[in-house]
Amino acid sequence: MTSPHITTFLPPESPLSMPVQSLHKAPERHGRAFWRLPTTPTLLWLRRLFVFGMAFALTAYSVVKINAVFNSLGTSLLGMVMLGLFTILSFWISLSCASALGGFWSMLRHGGLGLGIRRTGPLPELKSRTAILLPTYNEPPQRVMLNLRAMLKSLQETGRGEHFDIFILSDTTNPDIWVQEEQAVLDLHQHAYARQHLFYRRRFKNTDRKAGNIADWVTRFGGAYPAMLTLDADSLMDGSLIVRMAAAMEQHEQVGLIQSLPVIVGGQTLFARLQQFAGRVYGPLIAQGIAWWHGSEGNYWGHNAIIRTQAFAEQAGLPHLRGKPPFGGHILSHDFIEAALMRRGGWAIHMVPGLMGSYEESPPSLTDIAVRDRRWCQGNLQHARILFTKGMHWVSRSHMLVGIGSYIMSPLWLLFLLFGILIALQAHFYHPEYFSTQRSLYPHWPHVDPILARLVFIQTMVVLLAPKALAFLAICFDKQERQQAGGVIRLSISIILETLLGALIAPIAMLIQTSAILSILLGRDSGWSAQNRDDGSLPWGDTIRKYWLYSLFGLILSAAAWSVSLALFLWMLPVLVGLLIAIPLVGLTGSRFWGTWARKAGLLLIPEETTPPPILQRAAEERNHPHPVILEAFHALRSNTALRHAHLATLPPPRKAGEPISVPLLTGSLKLQESPTLEIALARLTPAEKAAVLSCQSNIAILADLPVSSPNLTDGPYGS
């Protein structure tokens, strides 16, 4: 039983001012430089020249060749539109290829380390305290606590654990999960280290979502911590990595943020295993590339990064955008903007992808990732209104353009396909004029050059697949990682399998993102829902209902292509197949059965599976020893005195006259007062009313005295 004297979850407050920034005025940099920062790599301008120069050169070559393919169309409207779309799409994949080449070079030279951080060797000493922030929103507490317990043990084992405090920052609205979080923290407080270093804070108003959650902590407690390390609810970081990042922040006074490279782990479904394999095999190369040319103008991915609290408070106070959602209101994809504003204020932003020990999880299915992507899509499109912020570095603007482009490329690919069919139809029904009005010895034979078209296709595929080939070479050069990924043969088969399945899923994802953009343009907000992290399988009826339109669209495209020519149909077959089999493809990739089969077959393996690092082993041990979980908040508070005392200590002060009236609290209080038993109260209260009742001290007193109608419910707060 938890000690009854524990009545608070928080340390003394240490307020820090966090002013809202203006996007239309130059920031106050307090004498810091803007263009050349102390941690800027030597000849960074040359790296950027290589990346963009190569991207433009590849694009120009491709555009010249594709124009020659359709030389019979001259300067027709369809041809010009097709050429414009191809130019944008070609530059997109060329930029990725050039960046990957830079990453390959970086991996061969120094493995993507920087800022003097060492991957191995003795851990550095620390001088200051760092806060580890774990925001959570309606996540199952028992799942969140698994990783947290592993991180607490890992931090203790470093011998530097006294320099870190962990804050669970809850925005949870589900009343049962709220009390489960409190009970989980009390359980952890049975251990001396957690009792001294683990804190819990729940907000009663979810203003500005996660960005507001972090900002609330900064303004209340940020003054006591020079640095803060931000996590997600599914984050897991090795204690030694945390220590090394904190030491690097101490060493470089003008660095505002250091971003690690989170590796996806724990995938059970086939879709999740595809995601984690791609992230682990291709991800390091891609991250090395962008870190290589971003330099001190890096980006922030919202989690698994350490931030200088002063820099964040000084520069990252986010304004609300004019208008209503989806383009107005608070900024959804806040991390990009926070990094850009800190860099605008003269703070360096770095990514250090060569350090291992940073992990996260993947949504288990295409359906689940589409829900998350819908919110990210809205947030990234919202960045179009922030692109021209005064004083922002051009590389920070490029981050936003890349974020926007990652979504608008889907409708552009779709338009490219549709215009390709239209051009084929035009060529099919076009009656050429062999002799022009000008005298000529030879007639003009219009044609689409099939050999040149094939060469353009091959070149495009080479540019598109080059990052995967380079990543394969990079992992093959590392004997240990090569063996841990299954060896050359299994690794090769896995890359082929991931590429084929990815190609089949791509057109479905293209339509999902296109429909998301259309819904945003129609003014529909994405809302805020908790992320599913477990089984991604759906009943086949639900899968059919969600994806039959994609198969129908594939059938229409197939008929259109077939009506023009067999050659066009075969040319479009890679896109058509994925759409035609959308229903079984989504259903099977969201299944654990095929994910388990792939692992047993030695396919889609990552080194963290075959040789788990210590932090993942600790997390697995915690998973094998689950802690009891309370099922319902009212019964738990009624039967557990320590939990009730701790809960009461977190509640806001009673409402004062003149303050806004909470309708759920008003109606919930009346229902509770008029309920003769606890079970009747539970039956009458809505979830919102139940949460409001739990936030009122007088209602907790009523709850403690309320009779229970069934003796079977008084045995204790824990479920079986």
From TrEMBL:
Superkingdom, taxonomy of origin: Bacteria
Subcellular location: Cell inner membrane
InterPro entries: Glyco_trans_2-like, Glycosyltr_2/OpgH_subfam, Nucleotide-diphossugar_trans
Record pathway: Glycan metabolism; osmoregulated periplasmic glucan (OPG) biosynthesis
TM regions (residue ranges): 45-64, 76-101, 407-431, 451-476, 488-512, 547-569, 576-595
Membrane association type: Multi-pass membrane protein
Keywords linked to the UniProt accession: Cell inner membrane, Cell membrane, Glycosyltransferase, Membrane, Transferase, Transmembrane, Transmembrane helix
Molecular function as annotated in GO: glycosyltransferase activity
Database matches in CDD domains: Glucan_BSP_MdoH
Domain Glycosyltransferase 2-like span(s) in chain numbering: 229-423
Family indicated by similarity: Belongs to the glycosyltransferase 2 family. OpgH subfamily.
Protein name: Glucans biosynthesis glucosyltransferase H
